[in-house]
Amino acid sequence: xxxxxxxxxxxxxxxxxxxxxxxxxxxxxxxxxxxxxxxxxxxxxxxxxxxxxxxxxxxxxxxxxxxxxxxxxxxxxxxxxxxxxxxxxxxxxxxxxxxxxxxxxxxxxxxxxxxxxxxxxxxxxxxxxxxxxxxxxxxxxxxxxxxxxxxxxxxxxxxxxxxxxxxxxxxxxxxxxxxxxxxxxxxxxxxxxxxxxxxxxxxxxxxxxxxxxxxxxxxxxxxxxxxxxxxxxxxxxxxxxxxxxxxxxxxxxxxxxxxxxxxxxxxxxxxxxxxxxxxxxxxxxxxxxxxxxxxxxxxxxxxxxxxxxxxxxxxxxxxxxxxxxxxxxxxxxxxxxxxxxxxxxxxxxxxxxxxxxxxxxxxxxxxxxxxxxxxxxxxxxxxxxxxxxxxxxxxxxxxxxxxxxxxxxxxxxxxxxxxxxxxxxxxxxxxxxxxxxxxxxxxxxxxxxxxxxxxxxxxxxxxxxxxxxxxxxxxxxxxxxxxxxxxxxxxxxxxxxxxxxxxxxxxxxxxxxxxxxxxxxxxxxxxxxxxxxxxxxxxxxxxx
Length: 544
Fold this sequence. Notes:
By secondary structure, the protein is α/β, with parallel strands linked by helices. It is built from 24 helices and 13 strands. Helices cover 49% and strands 12% of the residues.
């Protein structure tokens, strides 16, 4: 049948179906007596034999085949049209083409090639049965274990905290938990709380990505943070990103309508997720949380996320009162990584490529003279300003940055002050380095986002900042951080160090360098110390 149909094509058309080199090769080795060419009948047979699969499965060729049917053959193949030769019109050919696109097997039967269809689809089926399917929003094994534990715990516990090291995927793990909670009921509402625009923006975009892969229905995401003017009315399902300062402002607003809508939201929310949960017991933030989780009529469940489940660092054997309050606030329910055979979860994450191996290095300079005690108890503003202007200190920072730039590193610098950040960026630019400064005082949200995007694309090599890039920021190519801001907060130190610690499995690096300008503050030497400090604190609390 196929050969008969192809006989309606010209020789040139038939030749167009075959590779020119192959035709010439066939002629060269052929015993044909023809003068260096195949005749039309031979070409039709060759095309029918070599391209039959394509005329079944290739839509373009299949359509061309139908379009070139002689009217007599068209009537024979498509008797359902009940036509005679003078009644066959272009509209009938188009109808046949549309039908064949939807009924490939039936069409193959009409042109006597059903066996080709069956053998090909049978082969595809057998191959597909052993095909590997990769999830679009996967979790690593340790994240799966944590997600499973949290979901089980939330069935009978009202509050729980996830403790994962910086860079280990707290947000992705939480989004899986959030998605599961929303799938449970169309009436569930999740409120994601954070205190900074960068964290809120990250949560907003991450939920879009997660729900598009994990969701079971259409949902709505609401952004109530920064300068957004999203109304609180009508939120009875979906995902809400709430900026803590924005919610505090609404809560204190004199408008009775706003207060009513806020109360309605409090009654609708079924799960609260608090990002950077070590801040949860700050009085104003705690007030907002309790509006949702400590109500008489209905209380939402609470999930905290942190890399550092503690508020301050103390080298005293007695843990700080604030840390105890935080532990109590989450009812001493904490889920963290359990890695048998490893001294620290950090060791496991580094060995398996989830985190980069951090090389902690000191930047010493002449003139250092401030202790952790003085920085903590004296307020530190004048001292920090003096450090920002110290010539020897700044030379050390600049020179080390230039060394790393020569190695092709992507670098984030944490400066002492806003002006210090600007000064360092300009000094580096004068050395021919593509550098920029970013802070919340001089940059608009748009300019911050633009600079961050440039850095992610490696259009900027060094990004200097003051109190902006500690969290809610993901640039896996970063392999160097320079911590030039003295502090007594291991929480903040860990967040800064973590900017460079994305491992190769997250598109990052095998190793990274963490430089700390040493102002006689020796406490901050190892990310393991930071992690274990609070892990020990929670263990003690849980035994009480």
